[in-house]
Specification:
Pfam families: Lactamase_B. InterPro entries: MBL_superfamily_lactonases, Metallo-B-lactamas, RibonucZ/Hydroxyglut_hydro. By secondary structure, the protein is α/β, with parallel strands linked by helices. The protein is built from six helices and 13 strands. The strands form three sheets. A six-stranded mixed beta sheet has the order 1-2-3-4-5-8.
């Protein structure tokens, strides 16, 4: 890699399984009066983080994947039954990934959290007490602290409680070629990440703004976990507009088919 290029490494960080309806409300896949016993789709739900090396020397990480102790952490929410992390190998856990990269948590300059759900912010406490700037959407931070108790849906307060969370309130170019996009709907303040690469072109990491290619359409197909459906549809079209103008590659949040087509893991980077 030339020193003047942004380098992006997509890191698989653990694979769950779930009923597809959580990810895709597609009438063609649902039971009906004429087919009441239609087979449910139990599908792989891969997670990923994205490690970014910027030519100005900054290191960034997008999301943190699922936790090693997911049974213990997720058990009180009941979601361990719906999203078991049952297809994960030792090398995928985030602490393993950081070792593979030769990077300590505190050496990351920016931790960018697309949102604070349990499969994206679960390992954020690795950065507790470090000098890393942790960035989330302003509305996400407000919502994530707006409840009492252990969790609200897939937000587990202990995942992010006690962290110093910096916020953005508009689309923000963090560094040249790296832009955080506000794409709410899945949660109060879900973000997407746009990275403009010299060789590979623009990549948009959509996180849960777009679970899978089918989510994107057209037509866009919503999911079983959407906080604000109207905002979600608007965010999809915002992403589509940017994608078309930049001829960008969209990396979906949890698409097992696309995962087989991407360059993955340390040593398989995009520039």
């Amino acid at each position: 890699m030339a020193d003047d290029k942004i380098k992006v490494t997509i890191l698989p960080t653990g694979t769950m399984h779930a009923d597809l309806t959580w990810l895709l409300i597609d009438p063609s896949r649902m039971a009906s009066a004429s087919n009441p016993d239609k087979q449910r789709d139990w599908v792989e739900v891969p997670t990923h983080a994205v490690y970014i090396e910027h030519p100005d020397g900054k290191k960034l990480l997008w999301d943190t994947g699922v936790p090693r102790n997911w049974v213990e952490r997720w058990g009180p929410t009941g979601l361990d039954q719906f999203f078991p992390v049952d297809a994960t190998t030792e090398d995928m856990w985030l602490d393993s990934r950081l070792k593979q990269l030769g990077v300590e948590a505190g050496e990351i300059d920016y931790l960018l959290l697309s949102h604070l759900h349990l499969d994206h912010a679960a390992n954020a406490q690795f950065w507790n007490g470090t000098d890393t700037t942790i960035l989330v959407d302003e509305a996400e931070k407000d919502g994530a602290f707006s409840f009492d108790g252990y969790n609200k849906g897939a937000h587990i307060k202990s995942d992010y409680d006690g962290l110093e969370l910096s916020t953005i309130s508009e689309d923000t170019e963090l560094l040249p070629g790296i832009t955080l996009l506000r794409t709410p709907g899945h949660t109060w303040g879900t973000l997407s990440l746009q990275v403009d690469l010299a060789d590979s072109g623009t990549m948009i990491f959509a996180s849960d703004s777009l679970y899978r290619s089918e989510s994107y359409g057209p037509p866009a197909i919503a999911a079983g976990i959407v906080y604000d459906t109207v905002a979600w549809f608007e965010s999809v079209e915002k992403i589509r507009s940017i994608q078309q103008k930049a001829d960008a590659t969209i990396v979906f949040g949890h698409d097992p088919v696309q995962f087989t087509e991407l360059k993955l893991g340390p040593g398989n980077s995009y520039t």
